Structure formats: C-alpha cells, structure tokens
C-alpha cells in the first residue's frame, strides 16, 4: 500500500526539480538579453548624495571658474569680463610664486617628519610597551584640538616676552632670544612644527592599523632567522605599509595646498609674506583687497594642483603588475 505513495512523491520531486531548472535557464537567458538594464539596488540610497555633490560641489567649482574670468569686488553689481587676465597676472605675481614655494616646502617637510614619527610610534606601540592606551591618547589629543584654541598659545610661546625666550634666559642662553615670529625662516618652521604636532596623531593611527595587518608569522620567522628590529622594520614592515604611506602622501599634499588656519592665526602670512600660502593668499586677495576675480583664479589653480598632485603621487607609486615584469 505504501508503494504508490512513493512513486507519486518521486514524480512530484522530479517535476519540481525540472521546473526549477527551467526557471533558472529562463532567468539566465533573460539576464543576457541586450537592452535590458537592471537598476542598481543601492541607487535610491546614494541618489541624494549624488544630487548634493553635483548640484552644490560641482556647481560651486563651475561658478568659481566663471568668476575667475571677471574683474569684480564681490559686492558691486558691476562685473567686468577680463578673460584670462587674472591668470596672466598670477604668472607675474611674485607673491603667488612665493606662496607656491612655501606650500611645496611645507608639504615636503611635514610629510617626511610625520611619516618618520608616525612609523616609529606605531612600531613602539606594537612592541612590549607599558601603558599603551595612555600613550595612544596622548599622541592623538592634538588632532582633536581646534587650531583657533591652540594658535594663541603658540603666539604667546614665541613672542618676544614669551615662554621660549623666558626658558632661554633661565638656562643662561638669553643671547639666543629673539622675536621668533618676526624672522621669516623661523616663522615658517614654527608653522610647520605646529602642523606636525597636530597631524602626527592621524599618521600614527593609520600606521598603527597598517602594522597590525602584517602577518605575525612572517615577523616571528624573521626573528628566528636572526633579524633585528631595524632589519624587520626596513625589510618587512615598511614594504607592508606602502599603501598607507601613499595615502598619507596624498592627504598631506592636498592638506598642504589647502593650509590656511595655522599660518593665518599664528603669523597672518608674515613677516613679508614669509608664511604666505595659497589659502592665505586667496583670503587676503579676495576679502582684504576685494579682488574676488583674482582670488577665484588662484582657487582654480589650487584645485588643479591638488588633483594633479594626487594623481601624480598615485601613478608614480603604483606597483608594477607582476605579469609586466
């Protein structure tokens, strides 16, 4: 009596399997038909961000490019088209070239020092160091401090009657005391040191995470082979964090081109434009001198330099495909 039931169950199972296979074939054929595009599942979620980016960001970029072709004070209804005159003026502006040199020097110095400090601190905190959490907090605190609150402190430190000169007098080196911010070379170095102090925490965090991704088995094998700490860092750790270094270089380059708050609040771009950067020059030209068209032209150049620098660093640092070697 049970045999017919078994036969019917098998036939049902066979029909169900056949139907599923046919549906799968039809589904595959339908997906291969030309002209039928499937809407991305996440499009409704990213659409608001796309609208904001295209409607606000790129509109502002385009409008800035339009203003760069005008002679305008930013408030008057009179806008005089001048074509590329603002860019021609920029080429002959000695202050612009000095700001560009300061920006390049700022990028090189801050990048090198931040990479060295961040790497050393990351390696130390991956070792058998005590109170690691406390050290991490102390390293990262400058990152969360607003420049507007720390800049007056540095101005007081390097003032003629400030802390630095007071310490020099106390240790018998009063002859070295001077108005540090009135010296162009020292003023630029002070601005660089403040940036390094503030940004090293970010570099440290990135390197700390990157070092943590390196296979500990490789490190242990190197130690068993007799490699010391410096050899391990040079031959294993440093190549292992290469991608992080490239990212830090790109972020530092773009940040250097946009630098404004530190030199503006500590030195105001002086003395004699010694700490003038592209960001401070755009503000001074556009706001202080009411030459919005010229300031917009400098902004366009800054954008082009930022994009070109990021692409150059990425391309020049790209690893070769093993198949091409």
Automatic annotation (TrEMBL):
Spans traversing the lipid bilayer: 42-66, 104-125, 137-154, 186-211, 232-254, 292-313
Entry keyword set: Cell membrane, Membrane, Transmembrane, Transmembrane helix, Transport
Membrane topology qualifier: Multi-pass membrane protein
Protein location: Cell membrane
Keyword Transmembrane helix: yes
Chief location bin: membrane
Keyword Iron-sulfur included in the entry's annotation: no
A Pfam match: BPD_transp_1
Every ABC transmembrane type-1 domain range: 100-313
Family the UniProt entry places it in: Belongs to the binding-protein-dependent transport system permease family.
Name of the protein in question: Carbohydrate ABC transporter permease
Provenance organism: Amnibacterium endophyticum
